[in-house]
Amino acid sequence: MKCLLVGGNGQVGHELRRSLAPLGELLVTTRDGDLGNGLRGEALDLSRTGDIAPLVERVAPDIVVNAAAYTAVDRAEQERELAFRVNAEAPSALAAACANAGIPLVHYSTDYVFNGRGTRPYREDDPTDPLGVYGQSKRAGEEAIQSAGGDHLILRTAWVYAAHGHNFMRTMLKLAADRDRLRVVDDQVGSPTPAAWIADATARLLSRAAMPRGIVHLTTAGATSWHGFAEAIFEEGVRRGAIARRPHVTPIPTADYPTPAARPAYSVLDTALLASHGIEPPEWRAALPDTLEQAMR
Ligand SMILES: NC(=O)C1=CN([C@@H]2O[C@H](COP(=O)(O)OP(=O)(O)OC[C@H]3O[C@@H](n4cnc5c(N)ncnc54)[C@H](OP(=O)(O)O)[C@@H]3O)[C@@H](O)[C@H]2O)C=CC1
Ligand SMILES: Cc1cn([C@H]2C[C@H](O)[C@@H](COP(=O)(O)OP(=O)(O)O[C@H]3O[C@@H](C)C(=O)[C@@H](O)[C@H]3O)O2)c(=O)[nH]c1=O
Ligand SMILES: [Mg+2]
């Protein structure tokens, strides 16, 4: 199988380079083609949507996995056009190119497509209602892929963290090094999900004789608040020597931590469909130590 991985330098993309490699030939794009460590891949700037079809035609893969996205939730409120170009128009062009070539597109989406006013885990077919520009642009990407008419798998994940890149775990570890006290919201609830596990689960789904189609929710099991996640990061961080001491973390309501983008209060995703495809997610808390240890190396 020849796989084209779009966005190999992000949290999930970086882990997919590892997990997809054993499935066959893997070609990787980044914005400028640089893969780090002196390695070169293909250059693809997704804001140049006209470059997408020619690249897919030239590479002629058997499958495309798109891990690139505009993920700056707050900045998106000011950069609506760019967010939509990268998260909706680029996936639309990718889906058209894949449909044209008769190959499947695997894509990632987010819990932020929901408004968070639900009271039970969201199922794949629950109505979406994104609160901010990032979520709206991601939802538009889902719809564009669905309407392109080709074979596709959209994996909705949430609260992604990794040893590398920009994420809440690394932010908390950095803050712990210089602050005694932090304030973290405790009324936004979700499922922190390691990029490494997302990448492993994706590889497992792709190696199935019959790869699942449509939208599938892909997060860890259980849920916590950002405050609960911070406390877990500090507890595990001290235990494993990633930080010297545990800062005091005050739980606060969202109203006391104003941000440009509104975020869903409750964004737990139901993973029963994933389980029906043979993947049982680990509890979010049990999954944390692996990534924390990886971040220390
Ligand atoms: N992060 C999270 O908490 C969550 C993420 N998701 C989704 O999961 C997927 C993976 O996210 P994650 O790995 O965290 O994202 P990251 O922000 O870690 O990585 C995104 C990648 O996309 C690349 N990218 C952005 N704009 C462009 C562009 N114009 N051209 C080429 N490349 C571009 C970035 O490149 P560069 O480094 O050069 O900017 C970066 O490598 C995305 O679809 C995201 O929406 C879903 C739920 C939660
Ligand atoms: C740094 C910090 C954040 N917060 C709050 C702000 C916010 O409500 C919450 C999370 O902050 P972040 O900005 O790290 O998380 P955010 O960028 O909103 O994370 C989201 O990213 C996108 C890409 C997704 O798809 C989502 O699933 C989700 O992971 O924590 C505090 O309360 N105290 C703090 O010290
Ligand atoms: Mg953020």
Describe the protein in words:
This protein is α/β, with parallel strands linked by helices and 297 residues long. It has a domain at 2-165 and 191-220 and 270-275: NAD(P)-binding Rossmann-like Domain (Rossmann fold, 3-Layer(aba) Sandwich). Helix content is 37%, strand content 19%. It contains nine helices and 15 strands. It has helices at 11-20, 52-59, 80-101, 133-147, 168-178, 195-206, 226-239, 272-276, 284-296, and strands at residues 2-6, 25-30, 34-36, 39-40, 42-43, 63-66, 105-110, 152-157, 160-161, 181-185, 189-190, 193-194, 214-217, 224-225, 248-252. The strands form five sheets. Strands 5-2-1-6-7-8-13 form a seven-stranded parallel β-sheet, with helices on both faces. Helix 3 (80-101) runs parallel beside helix 4 and helix 5 (168-178) packs across helix 7. The longest helix is centred in the first third of the chain and has 22 residues, at 80-101. NADPH dihydro-nicotinamide-adenine-dinucleotide phosphate binds next to helix 1 and strand 7. Dtdp-4-keto-L-rhamnose (TDO) binds next to helix 5 and strand 10.
